[in-house]
Amino acid sequence: MTKKTKIIAVANQKGGVGKTTTVVNLAAALSRQHRTVLVVDLDPQANATCSLGLEKQGGVSMLSCLMGEMEIADVIQPTPYDNLNVIPSEIDLMAAELELARREDRVGAVKAIMDPIRESQVFDYIIYDCPPSFGFLMTSALAAADSILVPMQAEFLALEGLGNITGRVVQPLKDAGLVGADFGIGGVLFTMVDNRTLLAKQVTEEVRKHFGDVVYETQIPRNVRVSEAPSYGQPVIFFDPSSRGAEAYRAFAKEFLRRNPTRFEDPVPASVAPAAPAENPSAEPPVAQ
Predict the structure, then answer these.
(1) pLDDT, tens only, 204-217
(2) Distance in angstroms (rounded) separating the CA atoms of residues 196 and 204
(3) Which regions of 153-275 does DSSP assign to beta strands (E)?
(4) From CA 111, how far away is CA 12, in angstroms rounded?
(5) 139-174 pLDDT, tens per residue?
(6) Which of 132, 174, 176, 263 is the most buried (most CB within 10 A)?
(7) CA gap 252, 259 in Å, rounded
């Protein structure tokens, strides 16, 4: 079986849309599907770091790599969960904007740092939790990704956010030849959805009309357990596996896997029968690809 690491940037400059919650729970759900995942916390608030049960550590973040003080492999930290690692964030990561502003290679800086990790193929997925504003760090992270996942609420103002990402970031990167022609929004996920409201249905229909199959069928409902889980330093799929929020994120992860496969079967001689997979009753069955 061959494997190709994929890098997904989770981004939306509009706050309060469940960006970090989506990063944490997608990563956790993928890890339960026997995929190796690296979360890169690029938000100085370090919410993804804390939500995965880690304490913030001064000097242990992408900033140290941008400054040339540490190698990328040295800032990767284990989490309490199998198959799931994180590059933490810290409040000093705000200084990354100043560091990148003075560099000529600012757009390619994150890619240059992350390329050795991608090439090692240790991880199936690398997921960036982008800062919640358009700046050099967010632009550099997007330029280092294969595609963008945009979490959004079913509100009309959220449509403006999608347009901004396409017009202010994606297209300029393409025009400058810094990303491939197929780079762009690879997925839109509706979060905190209340389908009892007419507004939610109208916005969902409008986004699907413009973006088509890019929009995920799975929607994440409003769920108090999703909101409570970060305060315990856990993804909701571990904090309360039976909650509606946990069930939705597991369903989303399976849909995500089907759209973004990283493992590809090598040709097998006809005379050789494939071995049956080992059973692990404590883990969820891997999704078919």
Answers:
(1) 888 888 888 999 99
(2) 13
(3) 185-190, 263-264
(4) 20
(5) 999 999 999 999 998 887 777 777 778 877 888 888
(6) 132
(7) 11
- Alpha helices, DSSP H, located in 165-232: 171-175, 198-211, 224-228
CA distances from 76 to 37, 84, 231 (A): 11, 10, 23
Q: Provide the token pair at 143.
A: 């330029």
SS3 state at 190: strand
- β pairing state of 125-129 and 6-10: parallel
Tokens of residue 191, six digits = 């979060």
Structure pTM? 0.89
- Specify whether the CB–CB gap between 24 and 165 falls below 8 A: no
**Six-digit token string for 215:** 């929009």
Cβ pair 223, 245 in contact under 8 A: yes
Classify residue 264 by its DSSP letter: E
Cα separation, 133 vs 138, in Å, equals 7
| Burial class, 105, CB count within 10 angstroms (exposed 0-12 / middle 13-18 / buried 19+) | exposed
Domains of the chain: 2-259 (3.40.50.300)
Q: Is 29 helix (H, G, I), strand (E, B) or coil?
A: helix
